[in-house]
Amino acid sequence: MRLTPGFGIAPGLALRWEAVSPALWRFQLRDGVRFHNGAALDAAAAVAMLDAVAARQTHPRGLEPGSARAASAHVVEVALSAPNLRLPEQLANPSMGIQAPGTRAGAGADPASTPTGTGPFRFGSYTPGARLVVHANPDYWGRPPALRSITFRFVVDEQQAARLLAAGEVDAVGHLSPATAAGAQGHAPGRLAASQPARTVYLLLNVGGVGRWASLQDDRLRRAVALAVDRAALTTALWPDHGEPNRTLIPPAVLGDAAGAVRPPEHDPDRAGRLLDEAGWPRGPDGVRLRDGRRLILSLLLGRPAEQAGVAEVLARQLETVGIGVELLDPGPEPFAAFGRVNQATFDLFVDTRAQEDANPCALCRFFSIRPGGQLTFSGAVGAGEAADELFEDAHTVASLDSAQRLAAELMQVVTADRVVAVPLATLPAVWLLSPRVQAFEPAALGGDQHWDQVWLGG
Hints:
By secondary structure, this protein is α+β, with helices and mostly antiparallel strands. It has 13 helices and 20 strands. It has helices at residues 43-54, 87-90, 158-166, 178-184, 219-228, 231-238, 252-255, 269-278, 305-320, 337-344, 376-382, 386-395, 401-418, and strands spanning 14-21, 24-29, 68-72, 75-79, 121-127, 131-136, 149-153, 172-173, 191-194, 199-205, 244-245, 290-291, 294-295, 297-302, 325-328, 349-355, 422-428, 431-434, 438-439, 456-457. The strands form 6 sheets. The chain has a 6-stranded mixed sheet. A 4-stranded antiparallel sheet has the order 1-2-4-3, covered by helices on one side. A 3-stranded antiparallel sheet has the order 5-6-7, with no helix packed on it. It is globular and about 75 Å long.
C-alpha cells in the first residue's frame, strides 16, 4: 500500500509526529511550503482542515471540532476525546488534504471555489461532467513533476474510453470493470496495470433486525450462509484475471503476516445443510427450506447495484444449493438508499464493496463496533459484540503497527468465524489500461491516492 502517515496525498507535509499521550498528538509541518495561490502552509490551515474533517459523519476516532490548535506557526496539537494511536495512519487519506484558507473544492469560477492545495499540479480548468485540466506547479516543494499538464476526461462508457485510447486521444483509462479489462487489450494498444488488491467485496449478515428481518439472529443460519459461499468459485466466475479470494475484509497487504490468523468457515454445503436441519428448516418440495409454512427466503441488498449484479447472481445460486432462497431488494432511487436500509436494519444480506481508505490496519473494523470511532450506522445491524468492541479499542490504543495488525486480524476472526456477521468474498485491484507512451506509472489502490508527479511520456 502507498498509504503512509501524513496528510492525504502529500504525506511529506508532516515532518514529525509525537504521541504526547494516547489522546494527545503533536506534529510539525514542513516550513517554507506554499499553497498554489501563494499563501503559506501553516498550522492554522492544518487546524481548519482537521476541524472540517471532524465535522464529517465518518472521521478519525476521537477527533472533534475544536480538537486541534496551533501551538506555533508550524506545530499543531490535537487533543482527542478518545485515545487513538492510529491518528497519523487515519489521516493518510486522500480525502483529507489541506486546502488553502478561504478556498474549497469547486469548479474554479472564483478564487474561493478553486481547489487550492500544495501538490505538484495546480488547478487549470474544469468542465463539469467533461474534463479537468491541471498544470505543473512551478513552486512545488518536492521533486518537480515530469509532465507539464494533465487533462482528465470523464466518460461514463468504459468501452468508449478504451476506443479513445485506441485512437490516441487519451493515454490512460482508469478503474476499469472486470469485463472491460478482460476485453480491453484486444481492442486497444497498450498494457493493463493493476494496483495491489485493496478493494474488498464482502457480505454482511443482519443480526440487529426485528420481525421479518430477524431470521439471521439464529447463529446456525448465519454459519450455514457462510458455509454455502464458495469464495474461490465466485472469484473465478466474476474476476478471473485480477480478483483474489479473501478470508478477511481487510486486504492482506494491510494486515501483513497477521492475515493468516483469520480463518472463516470454508465452503462446506453438506455441513450447512445439517445446520439448517438442526435449526428446524427441512427442505420443501421445490428445494427451498420450510418452517411453520414459511419459506426460507433471505432478502439481498446491493450497495452498488450496477457493479454487484453478478455477485448477486452467483451468491443466489450458491445459497440455493443448500435450500436458502434469495430475493433482491430494491432500495429505491435515492442516492445511498441501500445504506439507509442498513442503518435501519431492514435487510437480511448486504453486499458491500470497500477500499482500504487509509493506513490504519483496523480501518474497516469500524463497521462492527459501537465504541468511539465505530460506524454506528452499520454496527447497529452487524455489530460483532463485546469481544469485537474490546479488540477495536485495543487496536487504537497499542503503540506499534504490528500489534495493531494482529488485533485487527483477531477482530476479523470474531467477525467472520466466531460471530459470523460478515462473509469475505474477494479483494480487487484498481485496473488501468495504459498506452505504450506512459512510463513510470504505478497504479494506486485508491483513486485519490494516485501519484502523477513522476509519470512521463515516451516514444
